[in-house]
């Protein structure tokens, strides 16, 4: 079974869908119209749609015609939420929701998986197992996927595949590589408390603002001095607030940051190190500080050789050896890891950049748009991977 | 042309040579007796040579009977200022100096490779240039040999380093970054001294250098791509003269390491920028001296492939293994900057013979059975490359 021609035939449907979702973006956990529309499309194709009470997102299961007893079930996942970004693409189908935009390409993911749903339904008689379609909400919260895992969407699922369209990779390339792909994501909040006083009498107070500045400088040493230089690690404080007024010594400061890395064991050693630096720096300056540290996504590591191999061969059978490109690992994260923590998985990237067409903005940029020809290729990848996986494990 | 059967007769030679050089280590730029013995051995086996680099280096040439390319094989020969604590019967006879990095093995393998290659001259394609390189530990030898014409007419190069992290019988030959670029910097700061009780009358060089060290941390933590390994270390800091005098002078010395030539340039310009801007903000003067020690050691993909093929032939199908790149530097990088090359990390680790100590340790020792394999790898790589 080869989905190349079927995907070309479905291309106009896929683009039409993408434009609709692009025009109607909704923020995480508010994807009501998005979910309705997906359910409507799936129902029209003949799927029975599973909704989640009080939550957005939906699932559907396709039973293959050649599914024998003990056959496998493979899940395909697309995320569906948009971002709080004011769109500046000037596209005729630009966002109708002010301040909300599909700036990460999840509109493309929905349409790719709908395209795959169509193709798989058309060839269901030839499938050696079942395909579960997962349209997941709230990826941008870093842990939307957690809800669906807890709700049992992976029950009976043997493997899962996900993909992201990617603005720094030229279309028509795609990347399905073994090993480290995206980093873990854990976030922290630091609160520093001192004592306020008049700005002209600092000796009567305890300056929480200076404490926050020192903490930020000292945190740099965790990356530059404590970490093995061969181990990729980012500690970023992205947001910092201190004080009330120019002539009052600040009695309180707050810092918000994120930690990205790959090694699961090392990941669990970070929190204690940050606490050490924060608490001791504060103590040295006569302040108190607290850290709250939250664990979100695990790293995305393609560590199942069979699945990576099936994905790569699927890409080659569709578009030839030259379709596969190398995309370096990234320090950004994906909540697909909540699925990957539970079942064997593979995650890939579909290049959406097209310099000749002026499509060079990266994901999350307010001008991000995609070479729409990548979408039917992504759809073909979903379908081909599912069919090949089921056949290989029949 | 079966290198393994030719090599078999040099099994004791390679160990005898290694033990001789091990017993007589000489520090960088002083490898006089080492160089002399290398010349004697080459003369004895009838291989032509000439002096090349620092006065102690030797460049030998073996011409094959058939036409082909020219490869340079390189082995370094200097010892280290380390006190030997192995208790071996062939332990260092020069107190305070030891072959703690395994360059004794390199020299012995290179002499044995010369034996093998001259024995197979009739079937050998092209020319093999053997570089017996001094002064690796001070990153002078390679540059000096190149300046002395070692690479004239050479198409590719190959080096071997015995490696304590790789099991004996195995060899790591990955393409790409293998060893780090290394640079050294010295920053000198001039402020103005004053009484410690009247800091406002001075310009405190101690505070300024402390701020520089703190600000330098942000290069690795904020500026460099986290996927690119980089180190900026300030290893030495000095400021002031007395507890109750505001420091007039301060200085820091450090090193920058990375695996990429662009990152190396980035590190240098960032260190300079932070030094200048921090000095300005503390009203002191600062200047930097920068010494480029070695560029990154990056194995050429084709040379790596070829060497892995050679390793399979002489060491067995499963000999090539993966080993993490290392943040140490290697001046073989200067050869590899000029012509495509690869460096092999030859396994010498063997728990059974106590060869588990890290390089540069006073207890460092090797599984000597790996040395003939190294010599064969040199020879096979030369034969294969030249015949291409």
Overall description:
The complex is a heterodimer of chains A (394) and B (388). Chain A has 394 residues and is of the alpha+beta class. Chain A folds into 2 domains: 4-181 and 299-392, Aminopeptidase; 186-295, Alpha-Beta Plaits, CATH 3.30.70. Helices cover 35% and strands 25% of the residues of chain A. Chain A has helices at residues 4-23, 32-45, 106-122, 144-150, 208-226, 264-284, 305-319, 337-340, 373-392; strands spanning 49-52, 55-63, 73-79, 130-136, 159-170, 174-175, 179-182, 186-193, 197-198, 233-242, 248-249, 252-261, 288-295, 300-302, 345-353. Chain A has a 7-stranded mixed sheet, with helices on both faces. In chain A, strands 10-12-8-13 form a 4-stranded antiparallel sheet, with helices on one face. Chain A has a two-stranded antiparallel ribbon with strand order 7-14. In chain A, α3 (106-122) crosses α9. The model of chain A has no long low-confidence stretch (mean pLDDT 95). By secondary structure, chain B is an alpha/beta fold. Chain B has 2 domains: 3-178 and 296-387, Zn peptidases (Aminopeptidase); 181-292, Alpha-Beta Plaits (2-Layer Sandwich). Helix content of chain B is 35%, strand content 27%. Chain B has helices at 3-8, 11-23, 32-45, 103-119, 141-147, 205-223, 261-281, 301-315, 333-338, 369-387; strands at 48-51, 58-63, 66-76, 125-133, 156-167, 171-172, 176-179, 181-190, 194-195, 230-239, 245-246, 249-258, 285-294, 297-299, 320-321, 341-349. The two termini of chain B are 15 Å apart.
Uncertain segments of chain A = none
Which sequence of SSEs, written as H and E, runs from N to C of chain A? HHEEEHEHEEEEEHEEEHEEHHEH
Distance between the termini of chain B: 15 Å
Q: Return the string of H and E elements of chain B.
A: HHHEEEHEHEEEEEHEEEHEEHEHEH
CATH topology of the largest domain in chain B: Aminopeptidase
- CATH architectural label of the largest domain in chain B: 3-Layer(aba) Sandwich
* Major sheet of chain A: 7 strands, mixed
Helix content of chain A: 25-40%
Strand arrangement within the widest β-sheet of chain A reads: 1-2-4-3-5-15-6
Task: Work out the largest interface and the residue count of each chain.
Answer: A-B, 18 and 17 residues
Overall geometric form of chain A: elongated
């Amino acid at each position: 079974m080869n989905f190349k021609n079927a995907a070309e035939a479905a291309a106009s449907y896929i683009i039409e869908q993408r434009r609709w979702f692009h025009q109607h973006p909704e923020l995480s956990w508010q994807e009501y119209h998005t979910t309705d529309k997906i359910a409507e499309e799936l129902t029209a194709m003949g799927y029975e749609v599973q909704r989640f009470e009080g939550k957005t997102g939906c699932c559907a299961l396709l039973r293959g015609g050649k599914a024998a007893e003990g056959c496998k079930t493979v899940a395909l996942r697309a995320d569906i939420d948009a971002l709080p970004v004011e769109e500046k693409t000037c596209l005729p189908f630009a966002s109708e929701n002010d301040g909300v935009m599909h700036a990460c390409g999840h509109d493309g993911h929905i349409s790719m998986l709908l395209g795959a749903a169509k193709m798989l339904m058309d060839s269901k008689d030839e499938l050696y197992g079942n395909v579960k379609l997962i349209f997941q909400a709230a990826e941008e919260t870093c842990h939307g996927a957690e809800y669906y895992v807890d709700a049992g969407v992976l029950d009976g699922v043997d493997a899962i595949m996900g993909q992201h369209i990617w603005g720094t990779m030229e279309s028509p390339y795609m990347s399905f590589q073994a090993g480290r792909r995206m980093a873990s994501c854990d976030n922290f909040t630091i609160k520093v408390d001192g004592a306020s006083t008049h700005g002209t009498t600092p000796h009567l107070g305890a300056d929480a603002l200076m404490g926050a500045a020192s903490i930020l400088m000292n945190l740099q040493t965790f990356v530059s001095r404590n970490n093995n230089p061969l181990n990729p690690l980012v500690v970023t404080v992205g947001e910092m607030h201190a004080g009330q007024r120019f002539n009052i010594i600040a009695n309180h400061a707050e810092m918000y940051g994120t930690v990205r890395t790959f090694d699961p064991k090392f990941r669990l050693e970070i929190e204690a190190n940050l606490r050490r630096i924060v608490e001791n720096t504060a103590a040295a300056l006569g302040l108190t500080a607290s850290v709250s540290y939250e664990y979100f996504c695990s790293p995305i590591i393609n560590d199942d050789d069979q699945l990576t191999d099936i994905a790569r061969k699927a890409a080659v059978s569709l578009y030839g050896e030259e379709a596969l490109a190398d995309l370096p690992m990234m320090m950004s994260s994906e909540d697909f890891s909540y699925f990957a923590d539970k079942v064997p998985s593979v995650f890939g990237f579909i290049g959406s950049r097209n310099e000749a067409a002026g499509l060079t903005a990266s994901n999350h940029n307010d001008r991000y748009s995609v070479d729409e020809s990548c979408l039917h290729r992504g759809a073909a990848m979903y379908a081909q991977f599912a069919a090949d996986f089921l056949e290989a494990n029949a | 042309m079966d290198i393994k059967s030719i090599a078999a007769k040099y099994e004791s030679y390679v160990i005898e040579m290694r033990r001789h050089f091990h017993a007589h280590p000489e520090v960088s730029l002083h490898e006089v007796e080492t160089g002399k013995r290398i010349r004697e051995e080459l003369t004895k086996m009838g291989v032509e040579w000439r002096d090349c680099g620092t006065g102690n280096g030797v460049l030998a040439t073996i011409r094959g009977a058939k036409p082909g390319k020219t490869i340079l094989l390189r082995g370094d020969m200097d010892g280290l200022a380390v006190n030997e604590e192995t208790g071996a019967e062939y332990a260092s006879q020069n107190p305070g100096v030891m072959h703690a990095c395994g360059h004794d093995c390199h020299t012995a393998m290179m002499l044995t490779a010369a034996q093998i290659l001259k024995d197979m001259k009739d079937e050998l394609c092209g020319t093999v240039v053997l570089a017996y390189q001094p002064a690796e530990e001070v990153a002078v030898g390679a540059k000096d040999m190149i300046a002395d014409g070692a690479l004239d007419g050479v198409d590719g190069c190959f080096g071997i380093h015995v490696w304590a992290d790789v099991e004996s019988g195995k060899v790591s030959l990955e393409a790409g970054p293998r060893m780090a670029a290394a640079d050294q910097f010295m920053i000198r700061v001039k402020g103005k001294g004053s009484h410690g009780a009247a800091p406002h009358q001075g310009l405190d060089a101690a505070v300024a250098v402390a701020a520089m060290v703190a600000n330098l941390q942000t290069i690795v933590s904020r500026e460099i791509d986290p996927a690119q390994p980089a180190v900026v270390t300030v290893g030495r800091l000095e400021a002031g003269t007395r507890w109750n005098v505001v420091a007039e002078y301060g200085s820091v010395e450090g090193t920058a390491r990375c695996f990429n030539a662009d990152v190396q340039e980035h590190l240098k310009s960032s260190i300079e920028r932070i030094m200048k801007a921090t000095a300005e903000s503390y009203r002191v003067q600062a200047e930097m001296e920068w010494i480029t020690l070695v560029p990154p050691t990056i194995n050429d993909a084709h040379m790596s492939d070829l060497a892995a093929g050679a390793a399979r032939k002489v060491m067995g199908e499963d000999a090539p293994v993966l080993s993490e790149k290392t943040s140490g530097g290697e001046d073989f990088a200067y050869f590899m900057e000029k012509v495509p090359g690869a460096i092999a990390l030859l396994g010498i680790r063997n728990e059974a013979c106590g060869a588990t100590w890290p390089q540069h340790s006073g207890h460092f020792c090797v599984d000597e059975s790996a040395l003939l394999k190294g010599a064969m790898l040199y020879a096979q790589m030369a034969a294969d490359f030249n015949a291409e």
